Amino acid sequence: MDMGATPRARTRPSLELAEKQLPSKRHLEIILSKLKILETPRLRLEQYPVSAEAAAELLYMAGFEHDDLEGRIIDLGTGTGRLAIGAALMSQANIIGVDVDVRALELARENAKTAGVKVEWVKSTIDNIDGTYDTVIMNPPYGTRTIHADTRFLDKAFQLAPVTYSIHKASTRTFLARYVHESNRRVDEARTMSLKIPYLYSFHTRRWKSVEVDLCRIVT
Known about the structure:
The protein is α/β, with parallel strands linked by helices. It has one domain (15-219): Rossmann fold, CATH 3.40.50.150. It is built from seven helices and seven strands, in the order αααβαβαββαβαββ. Helix 4 links the parallel strand 1 (72-76) and strand 2. It starts with 14 loop residues before the first helix and ends with a strand.
């Protein structure tokens, strides 16, 4: 799915990635699927984990197709670290994972050790994060419990880096495209896929729920 932009042609992975023996997308998905998630997430924080499938797709878009997993990478709202750990498996970049929940970060550290990668974990709200990065990766809150939670994450991402990879509910596509345009950015590429969310909260009635999401590459 394209939001009015022509996707860039696929490029060859950088020498750095090639030397690291880039895992296949399927292998990456398998590794990420084995990482732990929070068993008692906090609804207020909208702690819905990104699926291993969606994480692998987003990271392959970033690292293999666009060479954007280089330099300094930050994962905002990292949770238990799937995106940050996947990025570390894909590259030799300096990866930082940020989350406000200490329980999530404890699992993220454990997951990184299981995956055999190094990630810097930071306990903080996104408001207290500053600095300059090459790329932001994130699965932000969708704003269903706290209004505009998704745009807070986008605003911070745009402050930190020229390139953002972000996951959003497909139902907000029109709003997102307008918001990005008003922020003097553009959606360079977007893909739609089903994100499988496991039973996590008491109001869930099924073991799994599928939500249509857009995986977006947003640039200046």
